[in-house]
Amino acid sequence: MNLCYWEYKSWLSNIDFTIVGSGIVGLNCAFHLKKQFPKAKILVLERGVFPQGASTKNAGFACFGSMSEVLSDLKQHSEEEVCQLVQKRWEGIQLLRETLGDHPMDYQNYGGGHEIFLKDQLHLYEDCLENLNRVNTLLNSVFGKDAFLVHPNSFKFKGVHENYITNPFESQINTGKMMKALVAKVQNSGVIILNAIGVDSYQENIDHVVVKTGQFEFKTNKLFIATNGFASQLIGETVKPARAQVLITKPIENLSIKGTFHLDEGYYYFRNIDNRILLGGGRNLDFQGEETTSFGETNLIQNRLEEILRTIILPNTPMEIDLRWSGIMGMGNQKKPIVKQLANNVYCGVRMGGMGIAIGSLVGKELANLLK
Ligand SMILES: Cc1cc2nc3c(=O)[nH]c(=O)nc-3n(C[C@H](O)[C@H](O)[C@H](O)COP(=O)(O)OP(=O)(O)OC[C@H]3O[C@@H](n4cnc5c(N)ncnc54)[C@H](O)[C@@H]3O)c2cc1C
């Protein structure tokens, strides 16, 4: 694409900071850079017409990890590390609320997040109940109160144990509203966002970086990579893509289910939104097939989601599926994100795992703070 003098001059010259990716991390990075350097010219480049990764596709749980997830983490990490992970999620959500306010993203707490246990998961259920006090004591420094409580099956899910294990602090947001508000906030602060521009490669020079996109090339003083599940296309860090599939029902009359729910060790999750049920998960049915950066849905996973919906969540309620979609997450063998300097003028904030809404604001801020 041949750019004219005005286009170069106004959009692409004298760029101080360029951020690749306009997900929650890239946008927060841009926002905090602008706060630190109010006069800086900051550009965000986004490959999609909308942010096209996970931040606009997710389930919108403002969550900290369910009981079985914390227990599973305790098998791989020390108590101190698990406590730090949960603390980060807690701080991340507080920062997101502080940045945008609760109303613009429709932040709601409907009595918390509930982990429900399938009848054939007796061992897991008992293990979680037995460890309740241990985990509550461990996480007291984060929440100041018990993080997990026993709660009866008040929504009458079928084929599950009589109690949920509930985290009363877990809430939900409207993902679309959150991202729209974040984009507006960043643009209002004076940052330029260009959509439908994919970065193909970059070349590091002594005092600047040359960025090559599908359409044009330009120079920037510093480059920040916030492309999460797509990170390995640009940088050498080990981030594996992980696709997550979702469906949503049409509105259901008199829907009484409200809250966020985790099922089968967190491999499935569902919530209410606008009198509908949004349900996602099932990656464990085909880990290998879902390790992809291609969007799409498969019969294997979509059929299982529908089965769970019809037999466990809404066994006696007629409903129809309205939409199905997928998003791409960035995973690794550790739960900690990678926030670091890669070269003199290149930085990255990637590998958000399944909790990027919880930690994304904080990671974006940490990425910007690498310049401090
Ligand atoms: C279905 C689903 C449900 C989820 N549910 C939850 C949840 O309930 N709670 C929670 O905390 N987390 C959840 N997550 C995870 C969370 O959404 C992610 O961890 C988070 O959004 C990651 O944010 P990010 O900014 O790092 O990455 P992304 O949002 O993926 O942003 C990266 C951006 O980079 C762009 N990009 C990539 N390569 C290039 C390139 N070369 N040039 C230009 N642009 C590029 C992409 O288009 C994308 O917009 C879920 C994820 C999915 C998919």
UniProtKB/TrEMBL annotation:
Pfam families in the record: DAO
SUPFAM superfamilies the record matches: FAD/NAD(P)-binding domain
Chain ranges of the FAD dependent oxidoreductase domain: 16-370
PANTHER family: FAD DEPENDENT OXIDOREDUCTASE DOMAIN-CONTAINING PROTEIN, SARCOSINE DEHYDROGENASE-RELATED
The protein, known as: Glycine/D-amino acid oxidase-like deaminating enzyme
